[in-house]
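User: I'm curious whether this sequence folds into something compact or stays loose and floppy. Could you predict its structure so I can see for myself?
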Amino acid sequence: ALSPSRWPQKDERSRMEIASHITLASLGQQVLVGLSRTTILFIVSSGLSLILGVLRIPNVSHGSLYMIGAFVTYSVATFIGGQTGFWVALAVAPVAVGLLALAVERGIFCHLYEREHLMLLLFTFSLMLVLGDVVKLIWGSDYRSLAAPPMMQGSFSLGGMPFPRYNLFLLIIGPLVAVGLWALTNKTKIGKIARAAAVDREMVAAMGINVSWVFAFVFCLGCLMAGLGGALVAPTQNITQGMDHAIIMEAFLIVIIGGLGNMWGALLGAAIFGITDSIGILVWPQFAIVFPYVAVTIVLVFRPKGLLKS
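Assistant: Here's the prediction. I'll summarize afterward.
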């Protein structure tokens, strides 16, 4: 056993060993891995930010819809099989989640918009518990795993270090989703109406527009993004109950540091969260989970309203 006087020497040696393993290539690889995780975080958070910005609803059940998207992806991909199964599942899962959201919104939510925010929060929390039981009833409590399609399996060399092909796919799909959301909310009539309703819903209603259906569209679109995030994450981790809890906490933090209702803020917040987490794994693996929350704390100290909130 080492005497107490030797402990500082051991800690110094451990730090030197860690530092010797951190190269420019490994750091670059971790940044890219963090950016690929940013894609998932952004897609889920952008949907939550959209719902918060327009409907003013803190949708705690958003993570449950993400989980359902992952399970539906697994079921569809397994049923069809092969490479085709994954691509069909990637299209079916978000639509299925969106239709489920439409049923919930038209059946219950549309009658609650004038209620207090606390009641809406309690309702979405109750919905999260119900959806969790539905998932357990349909898929059980066992872990599920889904392989990436054959064309995206394996890795390629990046600066002498392996980088998964599926992560490259995530790096490509993320900006495409961001641009698509921006175009939908800024260049289409329904998007402009939704933005106007977020500012003054009474004025929009006075112009003869059915605000209730605008809210339904926004809610379904936001939930569809949660389903898409679940579909994309399915090949990267175990699909199981409880995966909704971690993502909803991260999504709310990202929305807060980015600025409520700001899509580009959600993208920036997701990048901060994903990259700091990935670098933390490289620099200090035992405490990697702390790094993103330290970054969030620093942002909120200097920008309490969020990075891109005017």
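Summary: The two ends are 58 Å apart (CA to CA). The longest strand covers residues 155-158.
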